[in-house]
Write a structure and sequence with these properties.
Elements: H1 43-49, H2 54-58, H3 63-75, E1 79-83, H4 89-100, E2 106-109, H5 116-120, E3 121-123, H6 125-137, E4 164-166, H7 168-172, E5 181-185, H8 194-204, E6 206-208, H9 210-213, E7 221-225, E8 231-235, E9 238-240, E10 246-251, H10 259-263, E11 266-270, H11 275-286, H12 290-293, H13 295-302, H14 312-325, H15 330-343
Parallel strand pairs: 1-10, 1-11, 2-5, 5-10
Antiparallel strand pairs: 3-4, 6-9, 7-8
Helix pairs in contact: 14-15
Length: 351
């Protein structure tokens, strides 16, 4: 194993992130004040990695995969991961977070209506107005309306921070001593404008919250809620990273991305899993000996015509059903074969 690798793909947590060299001068950020470290991995990551993280110990990423992940870490650049559905694109983010001890993976599942603002922050202006009206209508409230536009709390900025919640991208850009891991899933499902809208944020590592900028003179520091559910301080209405996050942008290849976005990313293509990789995934989720026990199912998954599209989830479904149904005799074996074929039907076929 080369000494330069921070992420080794070895499936065991280690302190390699502490040895990550300083960033290039053009990717060096100085945001502050630093926020507290995030919580540990959540159940979502445990499901992705297999029961008790067995997948991490069974599956070793290929050399190209390891090298490009480390290139993204060294260069502080997003990693654009392409590949067929179920090839392990999303799992890669969870694997890096687990091995390097980077805490809970921030997830932003992109849909056709997603906007940059969705990823950065949400301001509940209606909720704030309703609370203000309730406070004014409460017994003992000033009858002359002298409070004007004042808020019903005495917090900095009139309590506006209670109505602002950072999104997954906004939380990833908070100034932290260690990079956060952000998974922007299925970017190719987005509106045509979103990839271009991301350019400045990914390049500058910062964004502004206009609602807080307007109050910077009277309330330079305001506490808001992060995607983790923690209270964090935003200074002068600007969020600027300290350690650029490890961002994984996934795509199923349903569209092309603009050249400016590609220039800002490290591109990794994950090929369709071969038998060895599928066997490792099966062991991770179903235990030792499972790959050998269900070799016929794995072979059936791999037996496809050129151009057929299948997802690994289909293989897992077929194995789980085989395992729990307990088919043993000859008649049941025919049922197993028939249902397995149906469960693993190519995704690009409707009949």
């Amino acid at each position: 194993m080369s000494d330069w690798l921070i992420y080794r793909g070895a499936g065991a947590p280690h302190d390699g992130i502490e040895h990550l060299p300083p960033p290039p001068p053009w990717r060096d950020f100085d945001g502050g004040p630093l926020v507290a470290p995030p919580a540990a991995l959540d159940p979502s990551s445990e499901r992705r990695l297999g029961v008790q993280h067995r997948e991490a110990s069974h599956h070793r990423p290929g050399e190209t995969e390891r090298e490009l992940v480390n290139a993204a870490l060294y260069l502080r650049r997003p990693l654009l991961v392409t590949g067929a559905p179920g090839s392990g694109k999303s799992t890669l983010a969870h694997s890096v977070a687990y091995e390097l001890g980077l805490g809970r993976v921030l997830g932003w599942p992109v849909v056709s209506r997603s906007t940059l603002r969705d990823g950065l922050y949400d301001y509940d202006a209606i909720g704030r107005l309703q609370d203000l009206q309730i406070a004014r209508a409460a017994p003992g409230a000033a009858d002359d309306g002298a409070a004007g536009e004042a808020d019903p709390t005495d917090e900095p900025g009139g309590g506006i921070g209670r109505y602002i919640r950072l999104g997954p991208l906004g939380t990833a850009l908070l100034p932290a001593a260690r990079p956060r891991v952000l998974l922007v899933d299925e970017l190719d499902k987005s509106d045509i404008d979103l990839p271009n809208d991301l350019l400045n944020v990914l390049e500058e590592g910062e964004f502004r919250i206009p609602e807080l900028e307007r109050l910077a003179g009277s309330a330079p520091e305001v506490e808001v809620l992060s995607d983790d559910g923690a209270r964090v301080t935003v200074r002068d209405g600007r969020v600027r990273c300290h350690a650029f996050p490890f961002i994984v942008l996934t795509s199923n290849g349903e569209r092309d991305f603009p050249a400016p976005l590609l220039r800002r990313c490290i591109h990794l293509h994950i090929p369709v899993p071969d038998k060895e990789r599928l066997a490792a995934m099966v062991r991770a989720h179903f235990g030792e000996g499972a790959a050998e026990r269900y070799e016929a199912v794995i072979d059936g998954f791999l037996d496809r015509e050129p151009g057929d599209v299948r997802a690994v989830d289909q293989l897992f479904n077929a194995i789980h059903l085989t395992q729990k149904a307990g088919w043993t005799d000859e008649d049941e074996e025919e049922t197993r074969r028939r249902l397995t074929a149906e469960l693993m039907r190519p995704l690009d076929r409707t009949r």
